[in-house]
Amino acid sequence: MHLLDANLSWLARGRDHDQSGIIPVPAGHDEFVRGLAQRNQRWVDGTSTLSPRLITGLLRWSGEQLDAYLHTVDLTGASSVYWAGQVPLWFDLAREFTERWVHYQQIRDAALPAGHDQHQDQYLPLVLRTFIWGFPHQYQAPAPAGTAITLEIPGIGAWTLTRTATDWSLNEGPPAAPAASLRITGEAAWRLLTGARYDSRQVLLSGDLALAEPLLRVHGIIVQGSHPLTTAGYARSSTGQRLLDAALVVVC
Q: pTM for this structure?
């Protein structure tokens, strides 16, 4: 239902110029997360009598409407993403794609048997290249101007976080002499950046740990506090498989 809300909200705000559904951004992060959770719960409660066929039909219809609208917009226009700051509209749409991808992965993890083959998804590089832009907005470690930090995801890319006079900037490619570094597998990276549990053996911090450890607190989605998300609420059952099948219809 969260994805149906997302589709209809894009249409209401952008196509129909109706801002009444926007959640006011409060002073505190946790307050905003609670407001978002309450909104999601209202959708769940209000649609509890709908059948899976009706829900997937609404998702398909609203998705087609959204696709048609997005063909008319200027992708270089201004937008914003909660965890990345002010961005062009194309980045906001990339963020929207990552959100849907993450929900699919969560359902897939819940529906498939434990220990199933974890092959790399074809969209994982795109997702991580979007998430990576959360670092300059969220990373707050103090350091002298010119300090460089390496972010490396083997097989996907390497980036440099550089301290400027006022904040941190991000560029592609590794620095020559990093003060600290984070090297992480793609599988662990998407889980870390979405607040999910990950295999710590796939994460390597090096250099100045005062600079390296805060890298693990950056997220590519809205996460309450620092508590990891789990899939404990999804049973690995025939119900989970039906959720997976529905997700395949919507995401693919």
A: 0.79
